[in-house]
Records
---
Amino acid sequence: MSLTEIHPSRSSQLQTMTTTIIVARFIATTPITAFIAALAITLIVTFLAALAVAFVTTVVDAFVVALVTVSIMAFVAIFVVAFVVAFIAIFVVVFITASISYILLTAIILCANAEPRVFVILVFVLKGS
């Protein structure tokens, strides 16, 4: 009775399993082949582990570098925006204050020319505020 008579669809699987068992027994019972097989498995596993670590490290490093770069760019952008906003705000405040001061000074001079008592009242009002 051959393997094909047992089950036709399973014959190749059974032959592969039989061959694997024979090779495994030979490797396990012969010291040199067992050592070479263990060394080969160790090298393959070490290589795969190193490859996985290198891949993960590269991805993590790239992510960290991107995160740091984005953080620095965001910090610079926020600093520039804050500086520009502060500069504009200071400019506007100074400009408005200067404009108001100029308008008040002009009003005082015009009032003083028209009526000296109005000038004195405006001076007291401005000193009080």
---
Amino acid sequence: MENLDAIWQQVLNELAKTHNDTEMTLWLAPLKAVGFEENTITLENENEFKQKVVENTYTSDIREALTAVFGFSVEVDYVIAENQPSSEIHNVPEGNAMNFGTKDIRSPNYEFSFDNFIVGPSNNFAYAACSRVAEKPGVVYNPLLIYGRSGLGKTHLLMAIYHRMLSINPNAVVLYTTGESFFNEFLSCLQNKDTEAFHNKYRYIDVLLIDDIHFIAGKTQAQEEFFHTFNALKGANHQIVMTSDRPPKEMEKLEERLRTRFESGLLTDVQTPELETRMAIIRKKAEKENITIPDNVVLYIAENLKSNIRQLEGIVTSMASYSSALKTPITMEMAQTRINDMVSGTMSIEDQIDLILSSVCEFFVVPINDVKSNSRQATIANARQVCMYIMRDVMRISLNDIGMVFGGKNHSTVNYSINQVIKQMQKDTTYRINVNNIIRNVQESLGR
């Protein structure tokens, strides 16, 4: 059959509508369509372990997706890729036990420190607790769990702990990760029958900082593994700091033994910032963008955007770009227009582009002008490709408009960059998580 690869991609798109990112990345996306004969499609898998999981768990879903694409019933046959081990143990090379085949596309962001965290009544206790932990890890507040809605500064506090601890003790082994990364790495090690490497990574460290720990709730094996990881670290008086979108008592699928351990230390929340704190956040962001916002405009923004910090910073970024492009000062009318656009979801293409550039460059810690240049330096080129991907596949900005942002690049160059990100997301779980985090930040800044 001609264009079997293209047809299979349509099937994967159908499956993506009803399966989460983890299922797609680990089990479904690696499948390759290698044959079609007599209404039967042959799917090639990487190894016997994955083939058994897919066959037992996803065959009926694959059949439904095939029917949706072909318009008639299609049977499924499986084969294992040649030259692939069927079920052997995959040993991690000695001295490389912490390499799981994925690389974080950034290190913890140095811009997130205690010094530039805006403290107010909504977060002052969480700030104080994190400061104490950073100075005396394993001694006070162990474990520490910070909870609250997305966009209120929990990750900022984790990053601040990371950098403060290393500034005090450069030899400390401090690991920052997310609940989703923990889960996916654990599944990968189960698949490769090499949980020892996983244990080495997570149990022989001084400090574990784990974002969005609620992700493992309801995942039996991951909870079992985290239970033992928690006990190993706590038993050695090594610090554990976690964040979550809710307190342990509200994590419905969290095992009771984990719930009691999470509650055995200090629980502290971060709340929606009050008016004065929101105004301080706006002024801090304006200072960073090197712009001046009149006091009445600062007040107007703070009174009208109350849900999270990312929205406040997003509106300042948008106004900074507009002001710079038109060589005009920030005005009340400008703020009103941008807030109305944000609330109504009608932000201009130019403002969306500026917001994406700002979010991606802040994540990678690279200058916007470098990303818009022709630099081939790896980090800059990677950031540029991620920008193009988000602009096209998330915000639906035209290839023409994207190309113009980056010096008039043509359709094929933009398409190539987008496809590079897609391929990397399919094969690298950590990369995909980080790209999705950037997308989430952009969407929250847009009020979506």
